[in-house]
Amino acid sequence: MWTRTALLSSLCFTVVVFAQVSPKAKAIHDSALVIDTHADTPQRFLDGNFDIASTDPKDPGHVSLDKARAGNLGAVFFSIWVSPKFNEGHFARNAFDLIDSVYEQAATHPDRMMMAFSTADIQRAHKTKKLAALMGLEGGHAIENDIHLLRNFYRLGIRYMTLSWANTNEWADSSGDQNDPKVQRHNGLTEFGKQVVLEMNRLGMMVDVSHVSDKTMSDALDVSQAPIIASHSSARALSNVPRNIPDDLLKRIGEKGGVIQVNFYSGFVDTDTVSPQSEARDARLKTEQDAINEKYKDDPERRGEESDKLEAANPLPPLPISKLIDHIDHIVKVAGIDHVGIGADFDGANDMPEGARDVSMLPNITYELLKRGYSEKDIRKILGENFLRVFGEVERVSVGMSKSISGDGSTKRISK
Q: Each residue of 235-246: b (16+ CB within 10 Å) or e?
């Protein structure tokens, strides 16, 4: 069980990194362009009235401007996620509210962060030592089966879309409900789903396959004319959960020039250690969680707060950071050194490995990679250069696709 906010008021936080981070590791990290492709902090902006410039030492969140500075985070993709269960009929409207919350943070702190929409913007922010704030739409249900909404999201700054979240939508199967007999599935992408992928290519919006089923992922690889990304996914060979990616698809993503951004959530990093205890915990807490969902079904802010308090009071067992680095190692071996990066899922999951609990601790990743023999050049690739290359290729493909996939722009809304 994990929620989309991190308002864990019962926890405390101090901006620290491991004492053993070497001067060499720190020098490499501090001079690199570090990009994290998935943070759920907008839920905190909107539902918790969180200010990203907060200096509250008791704030338990994973992302703030001070923490980003401590971890030399140069660019972050803020996740625009709308619950498919509690926002039925209002997906786009709620997504617009979340997008607005990101713009408001950037407008409030122009000296420290800036909205970014391109590889050039990321580079410009890096040179001026500002945090580049980008956005990804997490879950295709948010476009409400409407190509026109997809285009509008792009115009508002969305630069990747996760084709599905944990729910199968009307055009893309998810990995999250594949064993639910009540869910109508499509054997991957529908014809409309394939049109969505091509329109994303034309717009210059990255196709994100985190959360999707294996068949949806395979279909996206077949259809997309640009490299695809997995914004926050790890290796299934090391942690056997449907959310993670099997080796054959890791390899295909690499062969097509894409990148897999490793998820830090303990439940995806080490199934053998975490899953049995997680399942037992979830079963034990189900009655309490169901009561919270029902009591606050019309109050998402309070529902998130109470859910996070329940989860924080029942943490998963701690994991060493080495388990996380194992996933990077594995993806390098299967997909190649040019096809792995970081998509931590900060502020979207509570339980992270020791030494990787928030953005201030990102130098520990560099230190651990250095210990394993990675060169400075390869570490820089993993920290951000691989993703920046893929983003640039998506931009290049977009320039070459001059016509809308719908021809005259008359694509109709799919009936529900």
A: bbbbbeebbbbb
3-class secondary-structure state, position 88: coil
Which burial class, exposed, middle or buried, applies to 45 when counting CB atoms under 10 A from its CB (0-12, 13-18, 19+)?
Answer: buried
Q: How many residues does the chain have?
A: 416
Q: Is 340 helix (H, G, I), strand (E, B) or coil?
A: strand
> For residues 402 and 195, what is the distance between their CA atoms, to the nearest angstrom?
15
Is residue 343 left, alpha or beta, with left meaning phi > 0 and alpha meaning psi from -120 to 50? Answer: beta
The pLDDT tens digits of the residues spanning 105-121 come to: 999 999 999 999 999 99
Residues 105, 46: Cα–Cα separation, whole Å: 10
Six token digits for residue 207: 């196709």
Looking only at the bridges linking them, the beta strands covering 113-115 and 131-138 are: parallel
User: What's the distance, CA 390 to chain centroid?
Assistant: 16
What is the pTM (predicted TM-score) of this model? 0.89
**What is the structure's pLDDT at 274?**
62
CA distance linking residue 388 with residue 345, whole number of Å = 18
CATH number of 23-273+318-400: 3.20.20.140
- Each domain of the chain, given as residue ranges in start order, spans 23-273+318-400
pLDDT tens digits, one per residue of 148-201: 999 999 999 999 999 999 999 999 999 999 999 999 999 999 999 999 999 999
In the predicted model, is pLDDT for residue 248 greater than 70?
A: yes
Distance CA 22, CA 70 (A): 15
